[in-house]
What we know:
It is a single chain. Helix 3 (91-103) packs parallel to helix 5 (156-166). The protein starts with 12 loop residues before the first strand and ends with a strand. It has 10 helices and 18 strands. It is of the alpha/beta class. The chain has helices at residues 37-48, 53-58, 91-103, 111-116, 156-166, 189-198, 218-235, 257-261, 311-319, 347-350, and strands spanning 13-17, 20-24, 73-77, 79-80, 88-89, 106-108, 126-133, 142-145, 148-151, 175-178, 202-205, 243-245, 262-265, 268-271, 274-279, 296-300, 334-338, 354-358. Strands 3, 6, 7, 10, 11, 12, 15 and 16 form an 8-stranded parallel sheet that branches. Strands 1-2 form a two-stranded antiparallel ribbon. A two-stranded parallel sheet has the order 4-5. It is 26% helix and 22% strand.
Amino acid sequence: MKKILIIIALLLLIGCEAGTPTAEVPADPPEAETPDFEQSVEEEAEAEEEPTEEDIVASIDLTLGPNELGEIMILMYHGIGPEESVWQRTPDNFRKDLEYMYQNGYRMISLNDYAKGEISTEAGYTPIILTFDDGRQNNFNLIEKDGEMVLDPDCAIGILEEFKEKYPDFNVTASFFLGTNPFGQIEYAEEKLTWLIDNGYDLGNHTYSHEKMEKLNSEQIQIEIGSVNNIIKEYLPDYAVETLALPHGSNPKNEYIEFMIEGEYEGNKYETIAVLDVGWRPAYSPFDILTNFYSLYRVTASEINVDNCGINDYFKQYEENKRERFISDGNPDVVTIPKRHMEYLNMDMVGDRIVNIYE
């Protein structure tokens, strides 16, 4: 209840009469009106009343064609360097990729948020996820300039930070999957890893020796994953590594898959919420019953020897409406889908979110 404080100020008027000062008694102040406390409480309650589900759903702009069961591209990058190849993008081509994404309605989200269904993309835009395998130095490189070590403007992070400044609403982020030597320059490892987390990027696991998982038993799998997690934990004790990019896209044998998801090595436990295959095709929505978070599709960010399955091939298919891409409704607490897709909605993943189905 609001407190009403009535302050009565006494004004002392000093006059001069026959040279002798006298105090003039002020008139009585007007009587304060008694506030209607009951009415105030009711008005305040109405002002603070939370919107109903109907209000929230009514606020969704259906003219934007929201479709939160559409596809989301998880892009698979490796290196950024002077020569274009299947596993390396030139700085100029990486800039072209990012410019295209921004100008054509894509906005970045993290893999971790995707795996939890926490998508806060602006209404009418499509989330897109950038991943980098191997933890190469050209992903995050420091160079000497005027006697100081500074960020290489043509490494992956240098270019991403360039676009973060150029387009603040691009929501720039990426997930970097590391092995035993994160980003080279081992003397700067802690500085780099700390900087990444502090600036909105994520770290994932790419295993210790890059061996095919299909060849490994339960103990070996835990060594491969646990070793890298422990290395990262040395630098970032409070950071939980929750994602894994499979070397060569090789899955463990069925009887060992559980150790890819959960395990322990040298006293430290790990839990994986998302596992990435190699590049092939866009991923399903996190709310789609077809999504397997332990075998997520990626798109190869290359134009060389990718059998019409490269980054620009899929961009073109979306342009020509040959595939349906995820279009956000702008509210992370609502899942909005066209009625034609309702049979694919995974209610377990939806959880407490509001479902909005429209014709």
